[in-house]
Design brief:
The complex is a heterodimer of chains A (342) and B (93). Chain A contains 16 helices and 5 strands. By secondary structure, chain A is an alpha/beta fold. Chain A folds into 2 domains: 99 residues; 178 residues, 3-Layer(aba) Sandwich (Rossmann fold). The chains are: A alpha/beta (342), B mainly alpha (93). At the A-B interface, helix 7 of A face helix 2 and helix 3 of B.
Chain lengths: 342, 93
Amino acid sequence: MVTAAEPDGDPQLQALTTLACWRQFASEMPAVPQLLDSKVWQGLDPDKRAVYDDDRIAHHSRLLIVQTPAVRDVVTTGRRLAHLNRSARYGRCGLIVSGPARTGKTTAITQLGKTIEVFHRRRHPRCGDDIPVVYITVPPAATPKMIAAEFARFLGLPLTRRANITDIIEAVCGVCTDTKTSVICVDEIHNLNIATRAGAEASDTLKYFSERIPATFVFAGINVERAGLLSGARGEQIAGRFSMVRTGPFGCDEQWATLIAALEASLRLHRHRPGSLPELARYLHQRTGGMIGSLLWLIRSAAIQAVIDGTEQITRKAMDTLQVDIASQAGSPRTARSRDRS
Amino acid sequence: MTGHDASRPAPLPIRPRPAPGEPVSSYIRRLAIANHLRPSYLHGYLAGPPDYLRAIQPERLAALSGRTVAVLERTLAGLTRPARDTPGHPLAA
């Protein structure tokens, strides 16, 4: 067997929308660096210290994938549908993951894809060339040819200006069938505007793919119900065949505190006091609006900052100096305070 | 960025082995059929723009088949690099 070329560089920076990067993502088990004893750490020579710090920065840049209720729901429902669809010759069911931005939709569907891929590899260890999962994103103002090209690009099928959409679709469907594709994740589905002719045709192309390829389709997008994807004759057909998992912000409750405790447990900082982050649960909720994406961003940034500046701990004061995304920033107490001062 | 060459085509999803002594055209045909592509389309892609009908570029075939040019040259019959790459040619590096 010949393996696909391995992409270089940090896998976190690689788009998942090519087969080589997807396979790397699906097979990676990042090593968690061990926290050295304080005396050993302080006695490291500068070169070794730099390598040790780099490892911890890399670890904090990804932290752990948190098994939120939404991730669990998507993985369980997706696996159930994939089993249901295995013997279906038509009318296969699909899954839609819908919710506001930064609520973990992409994480949830990529974790589903990874789970399916891992199970397939375990069950068929000799079928290294199989492509059990396809992951694409819908480009803005997508047309049918753009959708077909995204599939082709993921698979590594060559595209030239001479390629016509029928040939691309034939190749994609043929390869997916031959390589036993069982789950197709389509992210950023809100980019599909079925109110326009091109968008409606692109939606039809996706539907055609779902009829030709014996796989479970999983769509993820921002507030899909409001984007119009489920309205009208086309929308009703989708709504009739798809289950929906909704993602949303966390409340400031026990689940939120548990989530923060799990993140804190994965930190590799020398002077961080265990339990200090859960104590800041309310502050973190106000800073992030309960959005998991914003929370991860803030804690990752603070942990990396703590390694770089040598403080080796995350405090409220340190987090006050860090910006989260603009949307969360607007409602945070930190912004309110700076507004009051001006 | 290190290493990864964005201009290098991605390997095809399905890559049959080249048979010893197999003519290049036959191998391209098998590659195309395995990947549900028209052989003439794959040949055109391997030749590259602007003239899709000229001889194929061995580097492109190597990238798409997931093998090195040296392996393909040893295995396939009739795979030759363009004249300018041949040692002794006035345009050779």
